[in-house]
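Can anyone check this?
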Amino acid sequence: MKRHRRIHLVVGVLAIVLLLALILAAVASAQTGVQATTLYNAKLRSGPGTGYAQIAVIPFGTVLPATGRNADSTWIQLNYNGIIGWTAASLLSLAGDVGSLPVGGIAVEAPAGGVTGTNPNLLNVRSGPGTSYAALGQLPPGSTIALNGRWGSGPYLWVRFDYNGREAWAAGWLLTIAGDVMALPDIQAGESAPPSAPPSAPPLPAGAVIGTNAGVLNVRGGPGTTYGTVGQLPAGTTIALNARWGSGSSAWVRFDYNGQPGWVAAWLLRITGDVNSLPDIQAEYRAAEQAVRQICQTGQAVPLAAAYAGGPGVHPTLILNPNGTDHAWAGWAWSWRPSATLATQLVACVEPQQENVIEVCHYTGPDITRYQYSVAVRLFAVQSGQQIASTTLWGTPPRECRQWEPWDLVRLAGGPVQPTQLIDWLRPYAQP
């Protein structure tokens, strides 16, 4: 049975405008207050790209000011202990308005008429003019420092400079010096004896967890021997501990080292106090990693995750099911996949495919229902927790009902939503 259905002046002006823009950018950079935290041991380069020379390695967990960005915000200019350089944004967690940073960063110049020194190799920084003085830290290769004093004269003089807000010394013969070093104040001639050791550290707060090392101890940029050495603690040094990674005697412990986080192995210290009472950074990072995958359910910000600033470049993106597991289509976006969970800038929450009734065709016999598939998607900026976009993707519609149809046909369905539709929708956000 069958059924029935329904020119030069311009150059000068441009030069002035450019000069004003650079001045304003430098002023703006001081006002932005954008802070960067390294998610790994991060290379600091002389320019915004991997083709530029490495001038330092910033240890994991270091907090430092951002001073500029490139045009697409994929590289950030940083001030690392007075060394101005560039680090990939994917290696940083950024707090503040990244877009307010000046494009191109701030200019790096030596003070007018000043005497500067540049070290070609890693160089020990000491508290006085000689190797008998304690090491305060190290200058990465390629650092340029402004000198403000000298000890002695001739080829083997020592030079003084400011290091993390305190007086420091380095061997002059290990530096390439620009300017007249003999014009610097001669500290030796003005004093009867070399400067004394730095003043003793302020007393430790009551109830603090402290550690004392029996022998010389390496200080590392993160909680493990895979992290770079940022200095050494002389034997018998007592330090105030402020965090841990792990627990008990197998933990790594954190303390303030020359104004930046330093890490040492707890089992190499004699510890006074309860080390397990210290904040557990490992637990905080694990909780943050879980929070990244829970954002589809919670919509809550994850401050330890990488910041999303938009613009050209790759913005690491996870494609997740509503329960936080990897979606079946995640493999279509491997080039956007973050190197680590906390490097994630965006999370796309992809709902299951839904069947939607778009029409019921009435006949003298059984009706025919037409269905079209759809997938709802929400896109979150992980660090802020902000939902920045949403959409519904539709599959191909089913064919129309015909005048005459088989008696047993009661359903017409279109094609499912394809992963390429999701990738095309995400691309302007994940890789403009």
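Reply from J.R.: I decoded it. Confidence is low (pLDDT under 50) at residues 1-31, 191-202.
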